[in-house]
């Protein structure tokens, strides 16, 4: 189970530059011309979490395995993409396959770097992308509704499902016509289920990534373009992070001991990538369980909303079958007690807080 975050945006805004910085050993070609990327670049990214090394230390583990997500660097989209403009429909289908969208928005001014619309303008850039996603969804919905109309299912269960799908699609269609994304429509669980296989683009959660110049990293909100992105993100009920893809790319070229010095010279404490990765992780609705033992301490990515036994079921199919009892202890309780045995003695080995250590030694 590897969840995917797609890096999306206009051509030449810094998507591949960001991808290469986020993905260790990322080798996407990044260059100053539009449509540099054609085939998607894919890379696994580990999620930084200080709890992992604490648990690893307490359990004297030989190895620790962090949680991970997959990043996909996708070709640039332009106005008319849903009608085949630019690199067209094929690239919308790459977005269809991801679970969440990181929309890179150019906020840096640099006359040497081509902007496809001739001018840095976050509102217009965000509108262009969102509109293409809306058009593509409308197209899908129309085709699907047409098919449902012709359906001759007699089976009553199938009929109920088709009815739920039709009603969900009609509500979404109405919202899209008003320029609102599918995710803004409230649906019943049955309706949600019935449209899942359509993988609507505007159903996916979005984070706007404001890509700023090196000189603006210390005080990004002084940049009016960034302010605009902040306002739009809040209007669209989406997340927002600020990074400088350029700085992150430069950091990866430096030996680790020189990175802090470089960041200090720019007036910042740390790289923006940790923040970006954590924001993406929570955007995907994930949270972490740990298994910790002498052999290894491992962070597992689990969907929020699962109960402890369900999470244990993901970790070990044996749990699911009920062969082994799922012993879970809250992270803070585990650290305070110092070991699973001590936590058990204190009667703490029950899920009590929102984060758990699922122990399997
Ligand atoms: N924050 C920044 N400041 C200055 N230059 C930047 C910044 N981010 C990216 N660039 C530059 O912008 C150019 C385009 O970058 P990149 O190839 O990553 O864009 P892209 O969005 O992947 O483009 P395409 O859609 O064509 O694949 C590169 O020359 C890169 O160095
Ligand atoms: Mg690219």
UniProtKB/TrEMBL annotation:
Domain OBG-type G: 3-285
Database matches in Pfam families: MMR_HSR1, YchF-GTPase_C
Record keywords, A-Z: ATP-binding, Coiled coil, Cytoplasm, Hydrolase, Magnesium, Metal-binding, Nucleotide-binding
Compartments it resides in: Cytoplasm
A GO CC term attached to the entry: cytoplasm
Positions annotated to bind ATP: 12-17, 212
Function: Hydrolyzes ATP, and can also hydrolyze GTP with lower efficiency. Has lower affinity for GTP.
Assembly with partners or alone: Monomer.
Family in the record: Belongs to the TRAFAC class OBG-HflX-like GTPase superfamily. OBG GTPase family. YchF/OLA1 subfamily.
Protein name in the entry: Obg-like ATPase 1
């Amino acid at each position: 189970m590897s969840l995917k975050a797609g890096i999306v945006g206009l051509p030449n805004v810094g998507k591949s530059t960001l991808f290469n910085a986020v993905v260790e050993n990322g080798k996407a070609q990044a260059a100053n011309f539009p449509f540099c990327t054609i085939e998607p670049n894919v890379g696994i990214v580990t999620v930084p979490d200080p709890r992992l090394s604490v648990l690893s230390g307490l359990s004297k583990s030989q190895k620790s395995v962090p949680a991970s997500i997959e990043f996909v660097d996708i070709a640039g989209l332009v106005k008319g993409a849903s009608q085949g403009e630019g690199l067209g429909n094929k690239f919308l289908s790459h977005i269809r396959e991801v679970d969440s969208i990181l929309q890179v928005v150019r906020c840096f001014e640099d006359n040497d770097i081509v902007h496809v619309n001739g001018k840095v303008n976050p509102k217009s850039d965000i509108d262009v992308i969102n509109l293409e996603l809306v058009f593509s969804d409308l197209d899908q919905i129309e085709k699907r509704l047409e098919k449902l109309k012709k359906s001759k299912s007699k089976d009553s269960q199938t009929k109920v499902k088709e009815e739920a799908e039709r009603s969900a699609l009609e509500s979404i269609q109405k919202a899209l016509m008003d320029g609102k994304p599918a995710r803004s429509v409230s649906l019943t669980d049955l309706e949600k289920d019935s449209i899942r296989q359509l993988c609507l683009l505007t159903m996916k959660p979005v984070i706007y990534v404001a890509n700023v110049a090196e000189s603006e990293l210390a005080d990004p909100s002084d940049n009016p373009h960034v302010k605009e992105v902040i306002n739009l993100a809040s209007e669209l009920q989406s997340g927002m992070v600020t990074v400088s893809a350029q700085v992150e790319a430069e950091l990866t070229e430096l030996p680790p001991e020189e990175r802090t010095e470089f960041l200090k010279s720019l007036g910042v404490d740390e790289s923006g990538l940790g923040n970006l990765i954590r924001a993406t992780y929570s955007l995907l609705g994930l949270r972490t369980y740990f298994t910790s033992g002498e052999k290894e301490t491992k962070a597992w990515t689990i969907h929020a909303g699962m109960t402890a036994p369900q999470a244990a079921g993901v970790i070990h199919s044996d749990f699911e079958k009920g062969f082994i009892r799922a012993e879970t202890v809250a992270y803070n309780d585990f650290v305070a007690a110092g070991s699973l045995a001590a936590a058990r003695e204190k009667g703490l080995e029950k899920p009590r807080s929102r984060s758990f250590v699922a122990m399997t030694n």
